[in-house]
From TrEMBL:
It is an enzyme of class 5 (isomerase). This is Parvulin-like PPIase. Residues 137-226 form the PpiC domain. Its EC number is 5.2.1.8. The lineage of its organism: Bacteria, Pseudomonadati, Pseudomonadota, Alphaproteobacteria, Rhodobacterales. The keyword Isomerase applies. It catalyses: [protein]-peptidylproline (omega=180) = [protein]-peptidylproline (omega=0). Pfam families: Rotamase (PF00639). Belongs to the PpiC/parvulin rotamase family. Keywords: Isomerase, Rotamase. It comes from the Bacteria. PROSITE patterns: PPIC_PPIASE_1, PPIC_PPIASE_2. GO terms for molecular function: peptidyl-prolyl cis-trans isomerase activity.
Length: 285
């Protein structure tokens, strides 16, 4: 059970256990200050702060007095329970400790690689590099009528060829959510619509209507209304995305650097039954 689920009842209990004296000297700010010992095992302020740092945001609403007592009680009780295990920890526990240690130290390495504040000039340079030239991305405004069968779609195509109004037919026959709006889909670019639909849109000239197109949603009759070249976004609108991209690039470069300098040996996944990853019962043997 996690610390977050266990600490709640302890905090509730601790209200009646608080002492009236609190150390407030400069020494109290030292993470190495010993706050308790359990059979000779020290519990320091640093231990408490590390535990506090991992608690959910909801614990910010708990008073410092209650939180302090609750966390210290938690650590004392955990130490007692740890010491009560006289035998070697189970295989599951041993491996969980190893994984947790690996993850925590790896997280520190990530923070060091991605944590330093980025200069605004670096972000603007990334913006210029990404959006320096004229935009070449085309956006499309289209409408469609979605029906369940090819026969229905062909019948609608014939009605349109005879001069029927596209929006009126969409309102009457389309089973898609855009039907009440005359089938209007608004503006979109590559990667938004499913491939067969988008390919049909790209093949049309503004004002043209497609032959029936099948997708996993049914049969479509599509009308391309107009096209435009997508404008570059303003720097302020993509600043956060650029920052994330630069930080991700720093992380990727770090991994590549570490991998190139390391000796890594792995099994060939094809030589191993992947279903064994679900055999957590093996940890109990």
């Amino acid at each position: 059970m996690s610390i977050c689920t266990k600490i709640l009842p302890i905090l509730a209990l601790s209200v009646s256990l608080l002492s009236g004296h609190t150390a407030r000297s400069e020494d109290a700010l030292n993470p190495g200050r010993i706050l308790a010992t359990v059979n000779g095992v020290e519990i320091t302020l640093g231990h408490m702060l590390a535990l506090r740092a991992g608690l959910p945001e909801q614990y910010s609403e708990v008073s410092p007095e209650v939180l302090f007592k609750g966390i210290l009680d938690q650590l004392v009780q955990q130490t007692l329970l740890m010491q009560s295990i006289k035998d070697k920890p189970s295989l599951r526990t041993t491996l969980l400790i190893e994984n947790e240690r690996r993850a925590i130290i790896a997280s520190e390495a990530i923070d060091k690689a991605m944590g330093p504040p980025l200069e605004e000039s670096a972000l603007k340079a990334a913006y210029d590099a990404k959006y320096s030239g004229p935009s070449t991305e085309t956006e499309y405004r289209a409408a469609h009528i979605l029906v369940e069968s090819e026969e229905e779609a062909k019948a609608l195509e014939l009605e349109l060829q005879d001069g029927a109004d596209f929006a009126d037919l969409a309102k009457k026959h389309s089973v898609g959510p855009s039907g009440p709006a005359g089938g209007a889909l608004g503006w979109f670019g590559a990667g938004v619509m499913v491939e067969p639909f988008f390919e049909a849109v790209v093949s049309l000239e503004p004002g043209q209507v497609s032959s029936p197109v099948q997708t996993q949603f049914g049969w479509h009759v599509i009308k391309l209304e107009e096209t435009r070249i997508k404008e570059h976004p303003a720097f302020k609108d993509v600043r956060d995305n650029l920052e994330n991209e630069l930080r991700q690039s720093s992380f990727d470069n770090l991994i590549k650097k570490l991998e190139s300098a390391a000796k890594i040996e792995r099994i060939n996944p094809e030589d191993f039954d992947p279903t064994i990853v679900n055999r957590t019962d093996l940890l109990e043997k």
